[in-house]
Fold each of these.
Amino acid sequence: MTKEELRARYKRERADLGANRKKEWDTALTRRIAGSDYFRRAKKVFLYAPKKEEINLLPLVKLAWKHGKTVAFPRCDTEAETISFFELAPGERLVSGAFGIYEPPESAKLCEADESTLCLVPGLTFDRAGNRLGYGKGYYDRYLSTFPGVSAGVVYDDFLSEALPSEAWDKPVDLLFTDKNAIGVSRPVEETTKLQLLLLRTKDLAARVWEFAKKEATEPFGERSFRPMHSPPVLVFAAFVLLLLVGAVDTFLLNRTWEMILLIPFQLLVFGAPLGFYLLLGGKNSFSKKNLRLARVRTSHLWFLACVLVVMISGSLLSSIVTGGISSLDGSFTLYSTFVAKMSGNFFSILYVLFAFAIVPAACEELFFRGVICPFYEKFGVGIAVFVSGLFFAMVHFSLPLFLTYFFLGALLAFTLYATGSLYATFALHFLYNLFCLFGQPYLSDFYVNAGNNAVFIFLVTVIFLLFCALGVGEARKIYHRYAKEGKPSVFREPMPLRDYPRALVKVLFTPGTLFCLLLWIVVCLVNL
């Protein structure tokens, strides 16, 4: 029988089980687990909140608390398709969560498993090799693939199967508890090689990505909510298109004076129009003061911001040297590979260039990328938000040689946003960096040209970069230490386990909108080469 046929069969049999018999078997199973050495030795017990027909092991909660054990229940992340276990403290109650399954409250602490953890795994049926037949979502298989403790399947003895169909990525449990026995599982002698397992998991991941992309592409627009899967790429794609149209208009302007006059309205159009359209479609919550993090900059953050500014300047110089050579540092400041900063020398010309090339780009880009794009991805982890924000920020400049530089700057600005909790801080850094590019870069170019020794110049910049990286990291540690002493609550989700980042990154990148952005960026960069 196929897995689908087996699921239908065991769901039917479980539904037909009488209430009295179910209660009797549940009680016997609970006693079997409570009397086992595995339960007695465990310092942490991972349980589950049963659905109506599932085996009810909740009486173990009070027993575990009585013996000083940590009790945890799973919480589902339906976007990342993962589960994480959160501690249920004595006196706390479970609350309704994803799929109508009860889970720990929002205040619950993340509970990391170790070798002393016993995880009781539900399932429709198990076989004697420990293979499990669940509901087909794969949440427990993904979690158990890196679980360091003892995993135990719970199943009625009458529901045991002789042999279940299994795939290479299915994760069997270490032992089985039934209402009659505790069974050590037997493994097949022939094991799948690591290469075969990697290929099978890659194939499964590719199939999931393809199915997800088809679902996103075919879902009716009117039924969509602006989820993190597609909203940011749509906004970025709109900005790309508008920026290319503006560049096309610029090529037809015979009078360069008009280019300078129209530069500020052009930038407001490129970044303001997509955000305005999104606002009209119901995204007003994204523009709240709290969501945008319009908090004042603390004086205690000023040294950290100074360190980050030096890292931005020295790091961008080094990445430019790596990708374009030392000669790449010589030249005028160019915005979006289209507009070149030119000053006639009078006060009003300098003032206008200051606004057009330093203040307005910093304000527009920070509102767009750090104010609106970053919050979309925070539910996947702050690391994902920093990476994707930096990626889109680098792509919008349409420069293949400077991609690494812009990605570095975008990711660093996003990191600063989360360290300081202030969009004003990132705007100030962005503005000061643009100011350096406008007025400091020419003097730096003269310095290394006149110095006549590129190796000395590169060495000095590298030393400054590493020194201020160390100082900035140390200052960031102090900032978070102060947050902890103040009891400042985190506005983000619990830290994502490192093993979940690749899946989350694939999920947010492999969407039609993101792929369209990437394709457009590649085409434009190749044309500009």
Amino acid sequence: MQNEKLERIKYLTDILNRAARAYYAEDREIMSNQEYDTLYDELQSLEQETGLILANSPTVRVGYEAVEELPKERHETPMLSLGKTKSREELREWLQGNPAVLSWKLDGLTVVLTYYDGKLAKAVTRGNGEIGEVVTNNARTFRNIPLTIPFTGELVLRGEAVITYSDFERMNSEFEAEEAKYKNPRNLCSGSVRQLNSEITAQRNVRFYAFSLVSAAGRDFHNSRQEQFDFLQEQGFEVVEHYMVTEENILDSIEFFEKKIENYDVPSDGLVLTYEDIAYGQSLGRTAKFPRHSIAFKWADELRETTLKEIEWSASRTGLINPVAIFEPVELEGTTVSRAAVHNISILRGLKLGIGDRITVYKANMIIPQIAENLTCSGTVEIPETCPVCGGATEIRQANEVQSLYCTNEKCAAKRIKAFTLFVSRDAMNIEGLSEATLEKFVDMGFIHEYADLYHLDGHREQIVEMEGFGEKSYQNLQDSINTSRNTTLPRVIYGLGIANIGVANAKMLCRHFSYDMEQLRNADVETLSAIEGIGEVIASAFVEYMQDDDNLQKIEHLMAELQVETPVVEEGSQTMSGLSFVITGSLNHFANRSDLKDIIESKGGKVTGSVTSKTTALINNDITSNSSKNKKAKELGVPILSEEDFLAEYSIDSTEERKL
């Protein structure tokens, strides 16, 4: 029996460490938070029972090793995890009659900031608690971080870098392929903060909320945590929402947070309770892993038991087939839910799912439906050997210990429907009247097999007019939009082809580099493409692979025969903005919209980004005196703020120029 327990300890230590590596160092998940907590508690219990704690046990190690790509630095003060509870009464008892500060436990990436002489000098991630990654340049792009502060002594503080749910949804909506989407804001934030290119970080709207003051040279806080929070706010930091609590009001305060989290835009996975009396908290010391001055409260997820009805297999444009659990509807956190993403084959098998199984479901952070546990564990769900859309063969592919299912049929209808959806989208060929549902009908009826077929739908006029939702007028509107799209630009075509990692900006960049010549684009090699700023070897390889495929080349040839592609005339000396970077905000007077101005800037070799950074040449804003976040950032960094008129005059631009792209 003892040997079985020891083997179980070894297994739990290994699987929890692998989960921690995936979560902290690789920005992905191989198990849910609830599953991790359950296994962690089991390991801790076994260690206490047997007296065996392995050297690499997650109960004595904090976080995971920092990745190799960023410089590392040792923290002056180790960053420990917090002990946790899900019991409100236990949290109340923990106070032992002492007042404390109750605040959000935000779900992002912990960062330590150091200021010298009132200026941000250093930013380091939590890493493994002792050694973190230096991300100073990236931290300078956080939306709400002060680069200079009134206090001129050495200041060290800790806080959480986060991406709000609204920003997360907006950024995820920009990805066409399902597998390209981030699973949650925490993963997106972690990847954003640890970027090698700070410009990418700047585009991600990362925010920083201070939650702890480490030190402030020469400053007396009269032994009060609340005074430390007040001081940080006075320096310009946004701090986590917090309230002073006692045994009398802590339960009401927890209820307040619980109600607020339902609509709270900042990701949070619980609360933190810290003694107000700093000296008292420090006098309690620490365990091997936890300080005793604070404790974390994790929400006890509302669980509902239900029955698994089926597994739906959802195919994407790139062939990835994701399992989705469909179960008897239940009420969770005030809404009715009946489905939950299972994400991949590894998680599906780990849950041992079977049709008819009794399962428990919850909402992760009270928002995202998840399966908590399978009470039956029949494991009878069969992995489909054929694609649910096209019937082609499937295969399981493994990457970083995670298994996923893919359709191997390059002509899969799901791939084609998703591909056609991108092709007709606004930034591509901009064909109105072709929803994904309509495209699916056209594919099923054999009207379209490749992009060029969209320009011959007139051959199916009678059938289309008789289709539900159509009629003579709708058909004519569709034809008018299709014919309008024949006059287009090469960047729109390249983006519309759906080549992996080629977005709107990259498509424009490639076309400009090769003087809008499709032949040059077709024949470009990886080395040439990789040398283009912003492309890199991964994108270059995908582009070359696409262009070397005979079937793709044939489809491109058929498509180009249907189009009139405008070639911008790049006159000698016209690239007057080469190397310059601009940000556009607010309403415009001389241009119909920001896209028109952006196109002219790009036609002159310039670049338009979404966030003001130290590399920004100028912020274009007609309201120069506004207190907008972009104006504040520009002033902090010394970036010029130009009105539209000033910009046009300084760069000799005629606002009546036609759009070039």
